[in-house]
Amino acid sequence: MRDLSGHRKSLGWLYMFVHLLVLLGAGALAYATWLVALVVAHGHSTPPVTVVENPAVLGMSVFVLVLLALAIAGLSLGVALVRGRPVSKGLATLLAILALPNFPLGTVLGIYSFWYFGQEGWDADLQEA
Predict the structure, then answer these.
(1) What pLDDT, on the 0 to 100 scale, is given for residue 46?
(2) Does position 54 have pLDDT exceeding 80, yes or no?
């Protein structure tokens, strides 16, 4: 059985880097959503539509929340991998599948995750929390 501790830490740092970028993107999109909400609130629409009822603002808000949840899950998985804590293979697989279309970093993350979690003994050196 191979020693995968170096790969575990590398994958953990990659998870943290990619999901910090996702968090940054979620923040930028949240700012854009706030700007759209301001435009909607001060716009002249007939009949008047409140900000909460506007489908564009609602859709963007939901998307920001999904990105935020994805970033938090990826960051927690990355920290657990770097620290050598037990991780969920199912969560890692889900995040890898969701990352694959995000070329080039997400694709690298997804393929590396599939390779790492497909190796025999990937969880042999994990510490119990």
Answers:
(1) 59
(2) no
